[in-house]
Amino acid sequence: MDPAACWADTLALPVFAGLGVDEKARLEALARQLIADKTCTGVAGLEVDAAMATRIAAFAALPILNLGYARYKGWSEIVVYPAEFVPEREVMDDFGVVHRLRQPLSGEAWAGGPLVLSWDDVLHSGGGRGYNVVIHEFAHKLDMQNGAADGLPPLHSDLTVGVWAAAFNRAYDDFCRRVDGAEETVIDPYAAESPAEFFAVLSEYFFELPEALNGNYPAVYEQMRRFYRQDPLKRLEQLNDLSSS
After folding, report:
1. Burial 191-213, CB ≥16 within 10 A → b, else e
2. Domain total for the chain?
3. How far apart are CA 33 and CA 12, in angstroms?
4. Phi first, then psi: what are they for 197, rounded to 5°?
5. Is the pLDDT of residue 122 over 50?
């Protein structure tokens, strides 16, 4: 598939619906910059071709559409497995006993190091259903810009930590209560794992299923709208207005 066809095929995905001509041009420029700047390495028998790299880069470029490429500086490699991968971890419990854990993962982001993705999960991203492993892991990278991932990325001057924390802490506490109570939630229960995962999962919903995020946690949606400097919900509403007129 030639580059133009690769790009057109990627932009046809629902997550990019409603982007204007200028936004699409800016998205493509950022995606090309990422492809040029990062080494995209296939492992476990996978070879990453141009179409695969284009899809990953386009998803990754969406969160920084109005932030700029500098947000992704400081690391150099994207590692892509064919499907979920199973790293081995050693974890010490409260009694000092070390346990060796093996847990399947669809993605992983290391501070200052590589970003790891499952290609099978990349293929299931972008459908406007609230799931996007690329946006999730790149959200962790944004979060890590000011230290360990904790759900508080470096904020713009027009955002305050107090307002951000109030919105996210209230929503996180409510979401954890709902998950602990076995309540069925529209948002993936994995968001209750930690504040860092809450930010990353809700970043997926912000771009992929904004009506669900805004419907459940409008204060968080507003903080994300101001942080990402985008309004996916408004894009979709305008698109629906055009299609119904």
Report:
1. bbeebbbbbbbbbbbbbbbbebb
2. 1
3. 21
4. -70, -35
5. yes
Helix (H) or strand (E) holding 98: strand 98-102
Answer yes or no: are the C-beta atoms of 116 and 107 closer than 8 Å: yes
Give every CB contact of residue 204 below 8 A, 6+ residues apart in sequence. 130, 131, 132, 135, 136, 139, 188
pLDDT tens digit string along 170-207?
A: 999 999 999 999 999 999 999 999 999 999 999 999 99
Triad 49, 64, 234: Cα angle to 5°: 110
pLDDT classification of 99: cutoffs 50, 70, 90? very low
Residue 230 belongs to domain spanning? 3-244
CA distance 77 to 55: 16
Residue with tokens 């936004």: 23
What is the 8-class DSSP label of residue 192?
A: G
Q: Is the pLDDT of residue 89 over 70?
A: no
At 43, which CATH number? 3.40.390.10
